[in-house]
Amino acid sequence: MNLTVKEIQEWLAAFGRTIEKNKDYLSDLDTPIGDGDHGNNMNRGMSEYTIAFEAKQPTTISDTFKVLSMALISKVGGASGPLYGSAFMNLTKATKDITEITSQKQLGELLETGLAGIQARGKATPGDKTMVDVWDTVVQELKNSDLTKAGIEAAKENTKEMVAKKGRASYLGERSLGHIDPGAASSALLFQSLLSYL
Ligand code: ADP
Ligand code: MG
Q1: Which atom of ligand 1 is found nearest the CA of 130?
Q2: pLDDT of amino acid 77
Q3: Nearest 5 degrees, angle CA 89-CA 93-CA 94?
Q4: Which atom of ligand 1 is nearest to the CA of 184?
Q5: Ligand 1, from 25, 27, 33, 38: best to mutate by most atoms within 8 Å of Cβ?
Q6: Using one digit for the tens of pLDDT, what is the confidence trace for 150-161?
Q7: DSSP the chain
Q8: Cβ contact 156:188 at 8 Å
């Protein structure tokens, strides 16, 4: 595999399109265990990314992640904005001197810094029924050079069996059981959009 700035930008553009398509699905997941806005939040953030991308025309991997991070932090009203934003801010730093990503292992190590950003801000650990559950699985599978669609799906589906310990869904306690976490679902879309480039 070889991810240059071109492939990274294609990946994030594809993520923006899939967020737009799945906006209602993500907000519907957020309705029983949250406030029903996750799809709208993410779509607002990714629309802003598209606008900022056109305006700033970033030419490096690092600058591309920076544009995305700023868009998500500034435009997503919910908790997910600063969480995704800190992931992509850490990726901005981690890719400062990188022009290409040539292995799943290297990509896994980079995304691990993004995951660390989410955890530093949100204090969630795997099993807390958040986006961390998908990011953690993806990082482990990439480091083992074995990221698959099935692995991503399983990580998302597994959040159904979890009681939420962080975020709005945690107010429901046991009643959060039986529902997929919306942030885990949007993260699954992020990494599914990546699969064709590996
Ligand atoms: P809000 O909860 O403010 O309405 P969103 O609906 O956009 O924000 O996002 C909710 C998602 O954010 C959850 O499904 C979960 O994945 C993620 N989330 C919330 N709090 C945390 C946290 N402390 N750590 C990691 N992820 C979190
Ligand atoms: Mg919400």
Answers
A1: 16
A2: 86
A3: 110
A4: 16
A5: 38
A6: 999 999 999 999
A7: --B-HHHHHHHHHHHHHHHHHTHHHHHHHHHHHS-S-HHHHHHHHHHHHHHHHHHH---SHHHHHHHHHHHHHHH--STHHHHHHHHHHHHHHHTTT-S-B--HHHHHHHHHHHHHHHHHHH---TTSSSHHHHHHHHHHHHHTT---HHHHHHHHHHGGGSPP-SSGGGGGGGGGTTS--HHHHHHHHHHHTTGGG-
A8: yes
Angle, CA of 116, 119 and 120, to the nearest 5°: 85
- Tens of pLDDT, residue by residue over 21-70, are 999 999 999 999 999 999 999 999 999 999 999 999 999 999 999 999 99
Residue 147 has pLDDT above 90, yes or no: yes
Contact 34/168 with Cβ under 8 angstroms?
Answer: yes
Position 15 scores a pLDDT of 98
Q: Look-up: residue for tokens 């599978």?
A: 141
Q: State if residue 82 touches ligand 1 by the CB under 6 angstroms criterion.
A: no
pTM, whole model, 2 decimals? 0.98
Residue 139 reports pLDDT greater than 90 = yes
CA of 179 to the centre of ligand 2 (A): 14
Does the beta carbon of 7 sit less than 6 angstroms from any atom of ligand 1?
Answer: no
